[in-house]
Amino acid sequence: MSEDPFGDLDAAMGSGEAASEPAPEPEPEPEDAEPDDAVESEAESASESASTEPLDPRERTAFEFDETVHKALYVLEAVADEFDDIITYDVERELTRDHGLKGVTKSELHNAALAVATEHPEEIVERVLEQRGVDDEDTE
After folding, report:
1. Count of CB atoms within 10 A of residue 107's CB?
2. Per the confidence metrics, is the pTM higher than 0.85?
3. Engineered SS bond to 134: which of 53, 86, 99, 129, CB 3.0-4.6 Å?
4. Phi and psi of 39, rounded to 5°?
């Protein structure tokens, strides 16, 4: 074995002396072959027709990941663990098993959970009061 640990890397990668040989010239195309433009336009037509067909909403995400922002949420560890368990084992499972969704992302699940919270601010108020041990009747 040589002292250079990478000494045989060129040979293994196929870039030894054989790489210095000239590349073979491309063979001429037969007269009846389609020009490259025709092949490209067929491929473009196929991709355009495929893109005009609406994707099944069960097979695509609700939004692209680049549309999201990363926000820090500060929660107690027990609440975060319970949230993760419910999102993963209850919500995601129901969406995939019962509703046939594919490729459900955490960003979709987190977005939906926060959207539900924003639709019920009164419950958030009640929970904060409860966490502090403040009786709702005391504040009225």
Report:
1. 17
2. no
3. 129
4. -65, -45
